[in-house]
Amino acid sequence: MGKISRDNILFYLEAILKTSKDAVTAVDKTGRVVYWNEAAENTYQIKSNEIIGKNIENYFQMKDIKLYEILKDKQPIFDVYHQPRPDKHILISSSPVFDSDGNLIGAISVDRDITATVKLNDKLSVTNSKLQDLKQQVINQAKNLPFSSIKGSSKIINQIKASAIKVATTDATVLILGESGVGKELFAQAIHESSSRKRKPFVPINCGAIPSPLFESEFFGYEKGSFTGAEKGGKAGKLEEANGGTLFLDELGTMPLDIQVKFLRTLQEGEIYRVGGTKAIKVDIRVIAATNSMLEKMVEKGEFREDLYYRLNVVPLHIPSLQERLEDVPELVNLFIEEFSIKYQKEIQFQTNDIIEIFSSYHWPGNIRELRNFVERLVVMTDDAVLQASDILNMLPQRVKKTTFVNTPITIQDEISLIEKERIKKALENTQGNKTLAAKELGFSRVTLYKKITKYGL
């Protein structure tokens, strides 16, 4: 590769200085500006034809002029942070300039504008701080009373919590009733953790998840050699695991009838026999059962033992569906958004009225479980920091959209506004944000479109 001729070096240097994104300033030994590139114009908002030929101190305070220090000390500096004004952040590298005889003829400064980087870093710091605050809130809540995990402040949920807190201090058997997804296991755990058995095991067992042929061995355990495939040393069942603690029976209505007979005996005698065993094993357990079935009707049909039903139905707790406590939806939505903002390291905000109106107008057949899963999906899928009503409407399944506003006192104008907002958002997406094309597609003028974009926060 050939060397650049001395005649062309100046042209190359001039091109480099012009295209540099760093502000380049050159002064003579008196402080008079002899060079000021385009980046310097943009950084300091001073035109080159205005400042060249004039002393730099006419435009900046002496304490802010690093070039004078260089002229005085004749030593270079590198990446020195400087803030010439509140909204500007600069890294300065500066060096004295000497002629061929070693005489000082001036100084040059290269200033890198890092304002955008500093602002981004500040924003990230604020975001991280908020996330840490949210995380700490969750940790603090977990350390509080066990029932603090059950959210909601409606009258109906407060009444149920009060009853659960009262029964938790006793050893009474509890039968929790409620639809799927209302939080029956949360109540069971809270009762256990508030009881005198809290330092002993809490053993949950889903009766519907165990195949009937395996139920007895899973429930009561088995001795070695009791059946083909049995572990050599035998195995303790769920009842033994729960000894001293709490056994939580979920989906109680699916427990096989033959197991119900043996379980009733366990409750009466306080002992079990493993499958293949002849030795009685004492167990001390508290039972909390839960079901979404109508056990009374099952008893009438002979599908559930009457004596076991009355044995378990000492203190019934009916957990309301989310439809029965819609006033708790705002609190639950906020809770889940905070939870998943921490989990996925996102800072999500939302327009309260629009969002809550949509959430509260749907009947949520899957109850809190469905609501929680839906909020998680929203947080995962949204690309914006601000969650809007249109984001939810886009993500709701068709069956939800059809029922969303059935029982909601929403005006026709409100419905029209929601539809219009959705159409504008879709048009902007179709035109890649080109407002002229979007306005044409919608049949609006550009002025009207801008007004509506502002109105709907798009």
UniProtKB/TrEMBL annotation:
<keyword id="KW-0805">Transcription regulation</keyword>
<keyword id="KW-0238">DNA-binding</keyword>
<dbReference type="Pfam" id="PF02954">
    <property type="entry name" value="HTH_8"/>
</dbReference>
<protein>
    <submittedName>
        <fullName>Sigma 54-interacting transcriptional regulator</fullName>
    </submittedName>
</protein>
<dbReference type="InterPro" id="IPR027417">
    <property type="entry name" value="P-loop_NTPase"/>
</dbReference>
<dbReference type="InterPro" id="IPR003593">
    <property type="entry name" value="AAA+_ATPase"/>
</dbReference>
<dbReference type="InterPro" id="IPR002197">
    <property type="entry name" value="HTH_Fis"/>
</dbReference>
<dbReference type="GO" id="GO:0006355">
    <property type="term" value="P:regulation of DNA-templated transcription"/>
</dbReference>
<keyword id="KW-0804">Transcription</keyword>
<dbReference type="InterPro" id="IPR002078">
    <property type="entry name" value="Sigma_54_int"/>
</dbReference>
<dbReference type="InterPro" id="IPR025943">
    <property type="entry name" value="Sigma_54_int_dom_ATP-bd_2"/>
</dbReference>
<dbReference type="GO" id="GO:0005524">
    <property type="term" value="F:ATP binding"/>
</dbReference>
<dbReference type="InterPro" id="IPR035965">
    <property type="entry name" value="PAS-like_dom_sf"/>
</dbReference>
<dbReference type="GO" id="GO:0043565">
    <property type="term" value="F:sequence-specific DNA binding"/>
</dbReference>
<dbReference type="InterPro" id="IPR025944">
    <property type="entry name" value="Sigma_54_int_dom_CS"/>
</dbReference>
<dbReference type="Pfam" id="PF00158">
    <property type="entry name" value="Sigma54_activat"/>
</dbReference>
<feature type="domain" description="Sigma-54 factor interaction">
    <location>
        <begin position="150"/>
        <end position="380"/>
    </location>
</feature>
<dbReference type="InterPro" id="IPR025662">
    <property type="entry name" value="Sigma_54_int_dom_ATP-bd_1"/>
</dbReference>
<dbReference type="InterPro" id="IPR000014">
    <property type="entry name" value="PAS"/>
</dbReference>
<keyword id="KW-0547">Nucleotide-binding</keyword>
<dbReference type="InterPro" id="IPR058031">
    <property type="entry name" value="AAA_lid_NorR"/>
</dbReference>
<feature type="domain" description="PAS">
    <location>
        <begin position="13"/>
        <end position="64"/>
    </location>
</feature>
<dbReference type="InterPro" id="IPR009057">
    <property type="entry name" value="Homeodomain-like_sf"/>
</dbReference>
<dbReference type="Pfam" id="PF25601">
    <property type="entry name" value="AAA_lid_14"/>
</dbReference>
<keyword id="KW-0067">ATP-binding</keyword>
<dbReference type="Pfam" id="PF13426">
    <property type="entry name" value="PAS_9"/>
</dbReference>
